[in-house]
Write a structure and sequence with these properties.
- With 79 residues, the chain is an alpha+beta fold.
- It has one domain: HIT family, subunit A (2-Layer Sandwich), CATH 3.30.428.
- It has a two-stranded antiparallel sheet with strand order 1-2.
- The protein contains 2 helices and 2 strands; from the N terminus they run αββα.
- The chain is 41% helix and 13% strand.
Length: 79
């Protein structure tokens, strides 16, 4: 069960890196309320990273799906 999950994370992070044209990716997996986990289950945050951009782990407000869809499509094209 663990290996398929990590395979999926690896494929996804490579697609995000290519789609977003960034030099790095930050993978985060949060455990417990103190870490910022709001729903107790295993999932990974795949965050495109560029030098000089400071960024927190969790957004506190939802972005409209119409804003995210073009980004999702670029990522899908690289999977």
């Amino acid at each position: 069960m663990v290996m398929p999950m990590f395979f999926s994370v690896n494929v996804s992070e490579a697609a995000v890196k290519k789609a977003m044209d960034v030099p790095g990716i930050m993978l985060a997996q949060l455990n417990g309320k103190a870490s910022g986990q709001s729903v107790p289950h295993v999932h990974f945050h795949i965050l495109p990273r560029t030098s000089g951009i400071d960024m927190g782990l969790h957004g506190r407000k939802m972005v409209d799906a119409s804003t995210l869809e073009p980004i999702a499509e670029m990522i899908r094209l690289h999977i």
